[in-house]
Amino acid sequence: MERRRRRGQAVGQTDNPPGARPSRMAMAVVVVAAAAGLRTQMLRVSSKIPTWYPATFFSSSSVPTVKLFIDGKFVESKTDKWIDFHNPATNEVIGRVPKATQAEMNAAVESCKRAFPSWAETSVLSRQQILLRYQQLIKENLKEVAKLITLEQGKTLADAEGDVFRGLQVVEHACSVTSLLMGETMPSITKDMDIYSYRLPLGVCAGIAPFNFPAMIPLWMFPMAMVCGNTYLMKPSERVPGATMFLAKLLQDSGAPDGTLNIIHGQHEAVNFICDHPDIKAISFVGSNQAGEYIYERGSRNGKRVQANLGAKNHGVVMPDANKENTLNQLVGAAFGAAGQRCMALSTAILVGEAKKWLPELVERAKKLRVNAGDQPGADLGPLITPQAKERVCHIIESGTKEGASILLDGRKIKVKGYEKGNFIGPTIISGVKSNMTCYKEEIFGPVLVVMEAESLDEAIKMVNDNPYGNGTAIFTTNGATARKYSHLVDVGQVGVNVPIPVPLPMFSFTGSRSSFRGDTNFYGKQGIQFYTQLKTITSQWKEEDSLLSAPAVVMPTMGH
Ligand SMILES: *[C@@H]1O[C@H](CO)[C@@H](O)[C@H](O)[C@H]1NC(C)=O
Ligand SMILES: *[C@@H]1O[C@H](CO)[C@@H](O)[C@H](O)[C@H]1NC(C)=O
Known about the structure:
The protein is of the alpha/beta class and 561 residues long.
């Protein structure tokens, strides 16, 4: 839990002016800008942390200001309402995000709307070419986007790279649009009559993203929508805007025409705007339950398609015949990685029978994890996103004590040297938890593992199925029959067998279920294409007697471009 290097001692930074200690992240952003070929400028955030930002999408005032992306231009908002965003490891202000004005939001939708007809008519092969270039540019800039994520979100650099990488895989999948977008045909339904269907884009679609995966989740949204021929209005989380802005620049550099992607910032007003605007046809949302239920309702009431991934409570069932070494490592990684701020985090372990004897060893392994600022070498988990998030998690841990559970490992008092003001909580393990306790009922979204016990596999299955959420679950066993029975009977959309975080690769869809999902068509995979398209079915009759003989074509036709 020690910082390996003082903040002032970033590589190549030995002669800092007094009072100006560029953070390692500050360096990182320089690299970011250089890599993307962006013009950079030095900005003084406070007397303590001068920081570099890519001036294309951040501009200078007293603090760096995130721009809007409207009609192919990064523009300064004219709003008078701003939201500060912070480095979660220090709570220092990084910059501020505008609450876009109604006029700006309208301009963004107008731009999407203007761009739609020609984008929808652009051949699918040309759209695919843009996505192929985009895939390459994301790959080339992956580490730089990750550094921005660590700065704004707090997760470790390795984890941030994973965040971009999982998004990149969706872009790669979107490149297979040429097979995914095919319709169906049924020839000769009756004499000279065929039926066939097309998959057509919807129009303007919108996405509202959460703070926990600043790159992956936006990349679940606009690339899939756009490759189908839709134009897109994106609202990133106001706490982590940098990755989305960067990804927008890369998309523009890949050749996406102006107006095909627009970005607005804001909070409730922006969300309501998206739910209500008559020109927006579909909304993709990932985030908290409360917001998701609200957006699902309000958007659906206005006749829009909505897909919403909400909260979760994921159970890992540990059978006594499991490979102990592997299981304990997987559990610790999946419960505490990303400081538990993953909706697919394994936040509950159910130890079946003799497996409960492994608890002390689980605690020992959790203790060994190193808590530190995400950009520090060796960090296993970083801070929580805000002081409020930390307070909430501490509160839930406290409720465990009050309601009769035991806290075997308590991370609330952790001190991270050099980052005393950060929102850190160390790994925490609560055991003896019953299903009516607050720490079980609430999604904790912090580095807290809740441990329950069951006598049998059947009892464990019942416990998981009684929980309202159905995002993900895992079973650890070396017995195939046990694994099969569990996968078959458990009522959860995504099941891992000796795999702790079973987020499907993008050729499949993200199949959260029950209270973890609202809508009927999931994110990415074939379902993602279905969500962003509508079918047109054509029944046609060309009578044979009307055909004329024509001269044979002898030249190989070229199509598409
Ligand atoms: C499940 O987990 C994912 C990924 O962490 C998260 O984004 C989502 O909100 C959660 N809920 C559902 C239904 O997917
Ligand atoms: C949970 O249920 C048990 C037994 O029914 C009861 O004794 C206990 O007070 C309940 N705890 C909470 C927090 O509701």
